[in-house]
Amino acid sequence: MTGLKKAFLFWGKVGLRWIRDEAETLFSVTVGTAIVCFALVALTLPYQFAGAGVTGLALITHYAWGLSPVWVITLGNALLLLWGWRFLSARFAFWTLVSSVLTSVMVPIFERFQYPVIGNSMLAALLCGLVGGLGFGLLFRVGASSGGTDVLVMAARKRWGVDVGSMSFYLNSVILFGSLLIVSLDQVLMGGLVLYIETTVIDNVVRSFDRRTQVLAISKRHEEIIRFVTETLDRSATLLPATGAYEGRQFPMVLVVLPRPQAVELKRFIAVLDPSAFVIFSDVSEVVGEGFKKWGHA
């Protein structure tokens, strides 16, 4: 019974830890999917912008026959997930499935409302790219996807070793310019502009959440710096042995990675504590490990 109780407590803790870690993922997937669906219904359909991937195919059928995009998106995502799930990680497949189901629910909800029309199509494309990029960025930063050709490309990379960037570019280009059969060249070019803006925004969203500051500090009062980091900032630090090239003198160097606001606090503290300290501050695009991004999200 004791062994059974220990096992129960262990797996209970594992389950609680998983729920805590994935709560952020659920929030990001839900909000990100909602934003993407809003951008599709309110900022893409009224202007007949072309698109890429499964969404691009859904737009073609909508412009040609008036079919709601949700039908093609749902069917396309379902078929691609059924085919490619065994080539994907369990976590990526699960959250992509969640996003796909949410899309099937949210698109019809957003279609029930009327939205103001922007008179300038260029401004509409700019806003569509910004809003859509924000939604996709929230999905990508937690290791999820909205489905569609992302599933196809990821599965093809694992099965046949194809280059993800090249395959995604060619596949999306074929669908985008295939829209010329239905819409004008101007609308295809606007669709290309939307995709470019989305890609730029996605990169910035993903990087902004993960960006940290690495601090390397050489100071004769390193113990007080470490105490400030561990007790006041509630962070960990590492002491590295360093040797001066000119005199050959050895001294400890403090290494710590902090969110930007805490890096500013540390900078001010060192400036008062030891004005003669030598400190390097550098931006870090991603940090994985305890206290930062979980390995499952990397």
Computed Rg = 25 Å
Quick one: how many beta strands?
A: 4
Number of domains: 2
Order of helices and strands: HHHHHHHHEHEEHE
Overall pLDDT metric: 85
Percent of residues in helices: 55-70%
Category from helices, strands and their pairing:
alpha+beta
User: Counting H and I runs of at least 4 residues, what is the number of helices?
Assistant: 10
Low-confidence stretches: none
Strand arrangement across the biggest beta sheet = 2-3-1-4
How does the major sheet shape up?
4 strands, antiparallel
How far apart are the first and last residues' alpha carbons, in Å?
Answer: 39 Å
Shape: elongated
Descriptive tags:
single chain, four-stranded antiparallel sheet, 4 strands, 10% strand, Alpha-Beta Plaits, alpha+beta, elongated, 2 domains, 298 residues
Describe this structure in words.
- The chain is of the alpha+beta class and 298 residues long.
- It folds into 2 domains: 2-209, no CATH class; 211-297, Alpha-Beta Plaits, CATH 3.30.70.
- It is built from 10 helices and 4 strands, in the order ααααααααβαββαβ.
- It has helices at 2-43, 53-65, 69-84, 90-110, 121-140, 149-160, 164-178, 185-210, 222-232, 260-273; strands at residues 212-218, 238-243, 250-258, 278-284.
- It has a 4-stranded antiparallel sheet with strand order 2-3-1-4.
In short:
The protein is an alpha+beta fold.
Could you give the topology of this structure?
Blueprint: H1 2-43, H2 53-65, H3 69-84, H4 90-110, H5 121-140, H6 149-160, H7 164-178, H8 185-210, E1 212-218, H9 222-232, E2 238-243, E3 250-258, H10 260-273, E4 278-284
Antiparallel strand pairs: 1-3, 1-4, 2-3
